[in-house]
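INFO batch 0412 | record 1 of 1 | parsing
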Amino acid sequence: MYIGDMQMGMDLNMESFGSMIDNIIAGICFFEYEDGQLTPIFTNEGFFRMLGYSRIKGTKYLKKIEMSIIPEDLPRFRQAIADVLKDDGAVDVEFRTVTGSGGLRWLYVRGNLYAREGNKYIIVTVIQDISERKNVEDELKQQAERLHILSEAEGERIIDYNAKTDVMVIKSSGDYSMAGDRIQNKYMEKFDDTSIYEEDVAYYRSVLEGLLKSPKHDTIEFRIKWFDEEYTWYQANLTSLLGSEGYVTRIVGRMININEKKLKELELLLRAEKDGPTGLYNKEATMQLIRNAITESGKGVLNALMIVDLDNFKEVNDLMGHSQGDKVLVEAANTLSDIFKGGDIVGRIGGDEFMIFMKNLNSIFDADRMAATIVKKVNYTYDHEEQSIPVTCSVGVAVFPYHGNKYEELFDKADKALYTAKANGKCGYRIYDAATTMVYHANRKNAEYAPEKGMDMNRKIEDMVMQILFEDKDMESALRSTLELMTAKYHFHRGYVCGNEALPISRTVQFTVPGYEIGKETKEHYELKRVVSEILYESFHKASIIHDYDLTAEEMHDYFRAEGIKSMLYYPITSKGQFQGAIVFENHEDVQLEFKESQMEEISSLFRILEAHILQIGLMDRLQDFVTQIDIFDNLDSFVYIVNPDTYELSFINKKVLMKSPEVKIGDVCYKALQNRDTPCEDCILKRLNREDAHCRYTEERFNYSLRCWNRASASWLECNERNGLALLNCIDISEYFIG
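INFO prediction complete | emitting tokens
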């Protein structure tokens, strides 16, 4: 609307008008809109009081209002402005903003066109903070979801645990006041539920604690008695719900009476299902129980079948006798029983082989983690006549329903995975199906099986490798998984990483495609890989494709012939200009290695990521107290460097730096890598850090040549003492803001 011939900026006396509305609780703001720019020209004190800003900070907030709005809400905000300019009446909009302290706030804005002159508009708005109302709406939504879950439980007992009040209610799904109902206050605080069978208490409580950590589903079978009744088997299907506060506030579900079915199962097991020496289930009982578990698995449930084979068990039997061999089997069986929870199936299927069926995985990472635990704990040494005999294990894993939905399919694939683990040096584990399973492996942090969506096989291999390396805490396991993925991706036959004494790798890490294992006649060459890779460095100082005719040293020709190598992809690992080791992939068929330029760039990027990860391992050993922090640094959306301020050397760079700065390496000096200088910066921010103040911090803005953008860099101490110091440099890209 128009106000007569009022001239904008003259007749509109904001100060006098503002004195009348400063005491209004809601925020009242006048904006000037011209050529796509929204500028605040008046704001009442009520707005600043409502949001808790000073006038200076609140004005800055309004000037950059779009920068603080959640990206998903921006289209709605911009559409509201467009609607206001049409002058068809008041326009309402709700959106989320981020406060200066990082919190989230919901705002409701009602706007109207106050005046217009040419391309210049005055918009008047009333702003209200509706965060509390939205939180209540979210809570009501959670309650509706809870009631929906409970409504599906009719005819069974209902579990409803309130984490806020620590009250557990277990009731029949009919009349709330039935005699079988139970209400317990301070349920988790004073956990002493004598109604649960003693052997099931620890398992039951661990499931509840797991549900309280994050929202998820879980199923548990346990025995419980109601008042004077006998213990009865129940299956509880539980769901934990996330409240508006950001943590689990409710666990709800239903309890199904499975006593009759469970007693029949136990009757089956009592019919000589136990293995004599170990006390575990025997082969027949193990197979039948796994088949039953597969049949009962619901939609979307992940399970894992694992075959565990003892390495060098025959040697113990031959040298020390069957009596000692039985003791080894018993020790391994006890170890496996300690590792797995009561609901999982653990059995011995013959000789030195065990089989495990792990139920209700949250993601494939659960199987990955447990397989690694088995390899770590089933590791013994026996002394016999001044000779030490190591007994380790190899594990093959298949995941239901990803690798099959029948016992026979899962067993076959787990057996093939076991063969691969054995062929690659024993004392390790493999999950079946290299290429596609590695995609699962790379996504495992948030992975859930979704057959209708399928696997994202088009995901960039750099992203997959980054997640494998930075989420698998076992370095050799991570390297072997990466070698397997690259071998499958680029059709190599062998891949390995080796290093000299300075490199933090205890032994050569290798992956070999089945059919191309190292034979007995070439075992001696396997131990020469470190030496060979160093000889190659004298001729090839960078990533290189090497054929037999490229070699000048006769000993290298002999090595290629003995190993059956037709061509090789070689990458030397260097630090501070010194050779540390190599990453090598071999081709054993008469096909010349050829890659397109884009493929070679991709492979070079992968080599560099591997190199950086390996060189950073030493830092992790030094900074055990900071391992969690470093894991956080890797997932920040900023560029993070750890620098030695005395030598200016880079000791760590996070994933974002690795992906954006292809030329930066561990061991580089920061002034060369970041500022393209040959000497330290005269106003070096690191030199301003006070060693006597472990909490000091300095921030400056400057251009980062390696990232090719303007950064706001904050320097602080990560480790600070008289002799040693490590500084953390956290850089945020401000190019758009800075140039603007």
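INFO post-check: The chain has a mean pLDDT of 78.
INFO record closed
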